[in-house]
């Protein structure tokens, strides 16, 4: 079945789990407590910045679709948010980012050492919380996911300023670095619900495809977004020397002169030609090609979700996949 327009807004979809998210927030607040004041201060700073909370939301919605109502869903939703937050703290240091979600990054406000060390605290606190589930399968999923994410971060670092990167190599990075935690979140919901292996794998596929589509759209918005809506600096990816899909597609479609301009910008991390590069990305159809790649991933997610029981939560998961294509921030 082809991808269809979403039937509800993201707000109405996530309203299904609003009460659950309140419980998750309570767990987060309780488990952020530390005898070291700076740990709590930095942790609360980045978590209070908001964000879409898609990973815990995904876990909760899969649980809802499969009928699981146990309290472990709140604990594990907080775990995946802690892991995600730890990666943000570390990424912003590596990328030398100054703006996230419309305000200064933690490293900009507290310095690199504090950001790295508090990220370590969040990782270790997440592993402490995993023990509460008392399930080796859950431990295995989260330990494997954390390891793959770390590999993806190193792979991305190795690919910096490499203008020869192709779409396959690009997708390998984002499926490791970004999509893996989406995949783990959805898989955890199925495991908590006691689903069979077929449903568990379908949930994992949904999460991976959703996470991939999310990152592809995020990379597209770096050349087609509004900084005030996105809450980050436009052109950050180019400044960091990242050959993301819009640039890869533009180089495939552009003239030799256009390819050379983009190649030089990736290799030097320069923003001098940003306006020209944005114009090239738009003129060559690279944005549409990128959107089509995201649509294919969203369709893959929706196809996987169709094995779930038909209810408001599974309908919400389908809507969530379709809504990614309307993202503006």
From TrEMBL:
Coiled-coil blocks: none
UniProt keywords, alphabetically: Magnesium, Metal-binding, Transferase
Name of the protein this chain belongs to: Octaprenyl diphosphate synthase
EC number annotated for this UniProt entry: 2.5.1.90
Family: Belongs to the FPP/GGPP synthase family.
InterPro entries, per database record: Isoprenoid_synthase_dom_sf, Polyprenyl_synt, Polyprenyl_synt_CS
Entry-linked PROSITE patterns: POLYPRENYL_SYNTHASE_1, POLYPRENYL_SYNTHASE_2
GO biological process: isoprenoid biosynthetic process
Cofactor (UniProt): Mg(2+)
Role: Supplies octaprenyl diphosphate, the precursor for the side chain of the isoprenoid quinones ubiquinone and menaquinone.
Top EC category: transferase
Recorded catalytic activity of this chain's protein: 5 isopentenyl diphosphate + (2E,6E)-farnesyl diphosphate = all-trans-octaprenyl diphosphate + 5 diphosphate
Keyword ATP-binding tagged: no
CDD domains in the cross-refs: Trans_IPPS_HT
A GO molecular function held by the record: all-trans-octaprenyl-diphosphate synthase activity
Pfam families assigned to the protein according to its UniProt record, in alphabetical order: polyprenyl_synt (PF00348)
């Amino acid at each position: 079945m082809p991808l269809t327009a979403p039937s509800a807004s993201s707000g109405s979809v996530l309203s299904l789990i609003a009460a659950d998210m309140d419980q998750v927030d309570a767990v987060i607040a309780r488990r952020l407590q530390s005898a070291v004041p700076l740990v709590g201060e930095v942790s609360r700073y980045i978590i209070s910045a908001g964000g879409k909370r898609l990973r815990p939301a995904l876990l909760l919605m899969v649980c809802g679709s499969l009928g699981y109502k146990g309290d472990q869903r709140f604990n594990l939703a907080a775990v995946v948010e802690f892991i995600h937050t730890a990666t943000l703290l570390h990424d912003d240091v590596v990328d030398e980012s100054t703006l996230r979600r419309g305000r200064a990054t933690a490293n900009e406000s507290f310095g690199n050492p504090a950001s790295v060390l508090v990220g370590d605290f969040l990782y270790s606190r997440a592993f402490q919380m995993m023990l509460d589930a008392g399930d080796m399968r859950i431990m295995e999923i989260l330990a494997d996911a954390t390891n793959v994410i770390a590999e993806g971060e190193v792979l991305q670092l190795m690919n910096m300023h490499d203008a020869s990167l192709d779409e396959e190599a690009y997708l390998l990075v984002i499926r490791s670095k970004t999509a893996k935690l989406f995949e783990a979140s959805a898989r955890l919901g199925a495991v908590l619900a006691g689903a069979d292996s077929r449903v568990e794998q379908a949930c994992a596929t949904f999460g991976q495809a959703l996470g991939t589509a999310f990152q592809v759209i995020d990379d597209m918005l770096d050349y087609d977004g509004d900084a005030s809506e996105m809450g980050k600096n436009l052109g950050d990816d180019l400044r960091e020397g990242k050959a993301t899909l819009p640039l890869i597609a533009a180089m495939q479609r552009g003239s030799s002169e256009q390819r050379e301009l983009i190649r030089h910008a990736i290799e030097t991390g320069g923003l001098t030609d940003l306006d020209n590069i944005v114009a090239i990305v738009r003129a060559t159809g690279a944005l549409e090609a990128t959107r089509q790649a995201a649509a294919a991933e969203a369709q893959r997610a929706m196809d996987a979700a169709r094995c779930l029981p038909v209810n408001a939560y599974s309908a919400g998961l389908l809507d969530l996949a379709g809504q990614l294509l309307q993202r503006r921030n």
